[in-house]
Amino acid sequence: MKTLEELCFSNTYARLPASFYQQVAPTPVPNPYLVGFSEEAAKLIELNPQEFQRPEFVEIFAGNRLLSGFEPIAMKYAGHQFGHYVPQLGDGRAILLGQVQTATGAVWDLHLKGGGQTAYSRMGDGRAVLRSSIREFLACEAMASLGIPTTRALCVIGTDMPVYREDIETGALVLRMAPSHIRFGSFEVFAHRGQTDHVKILADYVIQHHYPHLRHEANPYLSLFREVVSRTAKLVAQWQSVGFAHGVLNTDNMSILGITLDYGPYGFVEDFDPRFICNHSDEMGRYSFEQQPYIGQWNLSALGSAMLSLIDREEAIASIREYPEIFNQAIDELMRAKLGLQHSEAEDTSLWQKVLNLLAEQKVDFTNFFRQLGNFQTAEGANKEPLMRMFPQPEPFRAWCQTYRQRLMREGRSDTERKQAMDRVNPKYVLRNYLAQIAIEKAQNKDFSEVNRLLSVLQRPFEEQPEMNHYAQPAPPEYRHIVVSCSS
Ligand code: AMP
Ligand code: MG
């Protein structure tokens, strides 16, 4: 495990032509302090977790001091926002400090969000508020613990600098990590300006550093696109399987690596509702929970268009057409596992779709239902009370249970074994909005204990942690209608 000064950097993005980014250092902030930190994330970059306690750590990740390997830049990109092309976005408040190389050869971007203005800030102040920084920090680490590809987060730093949104708020910074923060929009920005040479440079870079196994394919660019299609389809299927809604699926928030990127007004659905809209600014519900699979494909079309100087149009279309099948296969597999099924039968899709319909009709808690389903007993006449109680009108669910029971009988697995398998895929703990909100309210009063306690619960989402039971409760009435919007 290394000290900060011992980290090795290999800043390959900064070796791309200057038109890919702006060289810009973070703008210092007054009186930074440590709010939250992830030891798991520190391990990924081989950083000794003791380093969190050093005053230099806080200074560095507040953007007040640079490590000698840093070459800070703001990345240029564009994107389709709510369906409309915006020619230039870019890191308006995030700065890629440097890329850490580990002993195993892994590379991690250290990406500081809230670090001050850049050439891409447009009208923005380059800053982030404490609430959204805590939300992003917790989401990164919670999603990773659920086994869902995502950016990671090393820490949240607060500061005495006021930030002006609808109200005056506490300013903060979050240090994100990922093998890359390249977005669909990183391609779009050059394609829409006719800079096809830049599109090629970027594609070559992505293949060299992130998809090296595609280098010797007959058409590496088409293979790259096809793999992004596949990874995106599988990622969205994983979101659907845990009830996660991203909230702002603009193409600038879509990762070329197929990882979850840019957590703003995201949400985990509680009382199941396929039309769940977690982003208060999304009036039309473009990014509602049930739209995500389609939006994934729509966004891939935008990426495909941006790559047309490298790949044949017909082949691009054919790749995009593969998306629904990849998605359907992935979601089927995930949902079968959630029901505790090992083998596949033709009727399985309708089995899980039916139960989702029941959850929606009767507003049953998505996470708690699947966790509780693990206790289902196949013996004739076994007590199903705790499950039945989740449904205000249990009759239709009782009927579903008959079919489910017969289906389980054909699996030939013991109840105990099935429960163990189900508990490994149906989390007990997810990042419910109100849990984040309580941690945020405490942090706003300088009590950071809840941020770190919540983090530790969410880092073991599949474990019972009986002393933490209350973190598995649905939102209490006073927290049911918290609104999150794009303001951050
Ligand atoms: P987002 O909605 O967070 O994905 O951001 C969309 C674009 O707006 C990105 O280019 C951000 O860098 C930029 N942006 C968002 N908030 C700010 C801010 N406070 N200051 C500068 N740029 C921002
Ligand atoms: Mg974004």
Q: What proportion of the residues is helical, as a percent range?
A: 25-40%
Question: In total, how many domains does the architecture comprise?
Answer: 4
Order of helices and strands: EEEHHEEEEEEHEEHHHEEHHHHHHHHHH
Structural class: alpha+beta
Radius of gyration from the CA trace?
Answer: 23 Å
- Give the names of the bound compounds: adenosine monophosphate, magnesium ion
Shape field: globular
* C-alpha termini separation: 34 Å
Strand content: 5-15%
Write down the overall mean pLDDT.
97
Textual characterization of the structure:
It is built from 16 helices and 13 strands. By secondary structure, the chain is α+β, with helices and mostly antiparallel strands. The protein folds into four domains: 4-181, no CATH class; 185-333, no CATH class; 339-423, no CATH class; 433-471, no CATH class. The strands form four sheets. Strands 1, 3, 7, 8, 9, 10 and 11 form a seven-stranded antiparallel β-sheet that branches. It has a two-stranded antiparallel ribbon with strand order 2-4. Strands 5-6 form a two-stranded antiparallel ribbon. It is globular. The mean pLDDT is 97. Bound molecules: adenosine monophosphate (AMP) and magnesium ion.
List the helices and strands and how they pair.
Blueprint: E1 8-9, E2 21-23, E3 33-37, H1 39-44, H2 55-61, E4 73-75, E5 79-81, E6 84-86, E7 94-101, E8 107-113, E9 128-129, H3 130-145, E10 152-164, E11 168-178, H4 184-191, H5 196-210, H6 220-242, E12 244-245, E13 267-268, H7 292-306, H8 313-321, H9 323-338, H10 348-361, H11 366-373, H12 385-388, H13 395-409, H14 415-423, H15 433-444, H16 449-458
Antiparallel strand pairs: 1-7, 2-4, 3-10, 5-6, 7-8, 8-11, 9-11, 10-11, 12-13
The structure holds adenosine monophosphate and magnesium ion.
